[in-house]
Fold this sequence. Notes:
There is one protein chain. The protein has a domain at 7-43. The chain is 53% helix and 0% strand. By secondary structure, the protein is an all-alpha fold.
Amino acid sequence: MFKNIKQRDVVYGTGLDVENLKKHIKGKQEIKISAMMKIVNSLNINGSDLFEE
């Protein structure tokens, strides 16, 4: 579902720091709900979409 999305597009759409985003993706840093909601809104998806395989 998210294979064609680039990290830079998420960073641009959310205002999140690219290094923090990388840490979230790799599971090295927990993500705050507010940051997760920024991603959800930027991608125009439902929050549950982030948890589907």
